[in-house]
From TrEMBL:
Domain Amino acid transporter transmembrane: 110-506
InterPro entries, per database record: AA_transpt_TM
Organism (species): Baryphthengus martii
Protein name: Vesicular inhibitory amino acid transporter
UniProt membrane topology term: Multi-pass membrane protein
A single GO molecular function term of this UniProt record: gamma-aminobutyric acid:proton antiporter activity
Main subcellular location: membrane
Length: 520
């Protein structure tokens, strides 16, 4: 009996170790140079709450059994993997699990400061930079100031968010006691509402991820329509075609192959940005400096605020990124140079592009290019958008599945996976429905700038401005200097005003656009 028990425990421990290592390697493959392929920081949600369970490893829940054959049958039938670790662990099982965790930790690769900077750079220097010239159109020099201001604030809030992961122990040493954004949120709401903060962060993640998917469909339809205006195909039809290509995303089990292609597209995107700037510089003699004003469009500028904030979103995945650096002490330096570089490049790109086309600047700046090169550039961008779509989609699906279907006894619905690990038919239907939902939103609200502004004002400002400053004050207020308190309060107030203003104006624009499309 003892031999049988040890044999079963050994098999289970080996299986857990293999699964844990597989998940770890897949996660860190995305966290390394491959992870950086999703420049909209979509790695952000995927590497936050979900990363916590990946790094902690899966824990075994072995139900207590009473000797004899009945005990053997109980062990065989009731051993399962429990992610929340609430099940009781016998001493032997705990020991085996500890060994597995140690082995998994030994093989866990760490990333350098340069690799971490590559991830952050892709998060804040991505495809949605193409909408920044449109923000300058409605904000003028104030828009340029906001690009600089947002870089400074997001760099600061990223640092204070990481500070919330640490506390001082009894020996006066600073130790890491939390692993993710969700952990920080739950700590702030404890003890009265120990899970409320995490749920709020998860909802914000899901909204931002799904909106990112919608933006990819919108920009694909927009770029293809403007690349081939002579074809009898409308923008909505191009969006439908793009969604048909994306439908297989519902069957995805991992993103390893997709991330390799997306890395190439990310590099191609940087080349495209250089080409756009080169074209603008070739027309430097015709730049319309007199068009850049200090006044703002009161109705549309709040939308520009959301666009700028959304382009800097990266806070969600910073906790796991910092935790996986070889030298976490380099995190602050890495944040400084990545945001300084982003600020300079974004400001130059937005200003140069706007000076070239002035009042004719469109929502997606590549639509202003001459038809001879527009088609080629836009096709590359569409390919990048389609290959980047699976990343936020897969992350959103995992957050939804974990929150609603796999959260132990707290799950709202039955598990969407069968006993053999295969996705049930109704689970696959829900995934397909999510793809179709992104299409419907893209069809009825095909406005890139409005959607981007709405997302930036709603979730971007909340995750980048409001929550980090609030959490910093709540968790560390006794140790903060007066100027830190002042900065946190100022960021919270300014971020709240910008968020509410941008959300209201973006929502009004979307409602108006929705009515117009419904009438047509």
């Amino acid at each position: 009996m003892a031999t049988l028990l040890r044999s079963k425990l050994s098999n289970v421990a080996t299986s857990v170790s293999n699964k844990s290592q597989a998940k770890m390697s897949g996660m860190f493959a995305r966290m390394g140079f491959q992870a950086a392929t999703d420049e909209e920081a979509v790695g952000f949600a995927h590497c936050d709450d979900l990363d916590m369970e990946h790094r902690q490893g899966l824990q075994m829940d072995i139900l207590k059994s009473e000797g004899g054959e009945e005990g053997a049958e109980s062990l065989e039938g009731d051993i399962h993997y429990q992610r929340d670790g609430t099940g009781p662990l016998p001493p032997s099982a705990s020991k085996e699990t500890g060994v597995c965790s140690e082995l998994s930790g030994q093989g866990k690769p760490k990333i350098t400061a340069w690799e971490a900077g590559w991830n952050v750079t892709n998060a804040i220097q991505g495809m949605f930079v193409l909408g920044l010239p449109y923000a300058i159109l409605h904000g003028g020099y104030l828009g340029l100031f906001l690009i600089i201001f947002a870089a400074v604030v997001c760099c600061y809030t990223g640092k204070i968010l990481i500070a919330c992961l640490y506390e001082e122990n009894e020996d006066g040493e600073i130790v890491r006691v939390r692993d993710s954004y969700v952990d920080i949120a739950n700590a702030c709401c404890a003890p009265r509402f120990p899970t409320l903060g995490g749920r709020v962060v998860n909802v914000a993640q899901i909204i931002e991820l799904v909106m990112t998917c919608i933006l990819y469909v919108v920009v694909s339809g927009n770029l293809m329509y403007n690349s081939f205006p002579n074809l009898p195909v409308s923008q909505k039809s191009w969006s439908i075609i793009a969604t048909a290509v994306l439908l297989p995303c519902a069957f995805l089990k991992n993103l390893k192959a997709v991330s390799k292609f997306s890395l190439l597209c990310t590099l191609a995107h940087f080349v495209i940005n250089i080409l756009v700037i080169a074209y603008c510089l070739s027309r430097a003699r015709d730049w319309a400096w007199d068009k850049v004003k200090f006044y703002i469009d009161v109705k549309k500028f709040p939308i520009s605020i959301g666009i700028i904030v959304f382009s800097y979103t990266s806070q969600i995945f910073l906790p796991s990124l910092e935790g996986n650096m070889q030298n976490p002490k380099e995190f602050h330096c890495m944040m400084n140079w990545t945001h300084i570089a982003a600020c300079i490049l974004k400001g130059l790109f937005a200003l140069v592009a706007y000076l070239t086309w002035a009042d004719e600047t469109k929502e997606v700046i590549t639509d202003n290019l001459p038809s001879t090169i527009r088609a080629v550039v836009n096709i590359f961008l569409v390919a990048k958008a389609l290959l980047s779509y699976p990343l936020p989609f897969f992350a959103a699906v995992e957050v939804l599945e974990r929150s609603l279907f796999q959260d132990g006894n707290r799950a709202f619905f039955p598990n969407c996976y069968g006993g053999d690990g295969r996705l049930k038919s109704w689970g696959l239907t829900l995934r397909c429905a999510l793809v179709v939902f992104t299409l419907l939103m893209a069809i009825y609200v095909p406005h890139f700038a409005l959607l981007m502004g709405l997302t930036g004002s709603l979730t971007g400002a909340g995750l980048c401005f409001l929550l980090p400053s609030l959490f910093h004050l709540k968790l560390l207020w006794r140790k903060l200097l007066w100027h830190h308190v002042f900065f946190d309060v100022a960021i919270f107030v300014i971020g709240g005003i910008c968020s509410v203003s941008g959300f209201i104006h973006s929502l009004e624009g979307l409602i108006e656009a929705f009515r117009t499309n419904a009438e047509d």
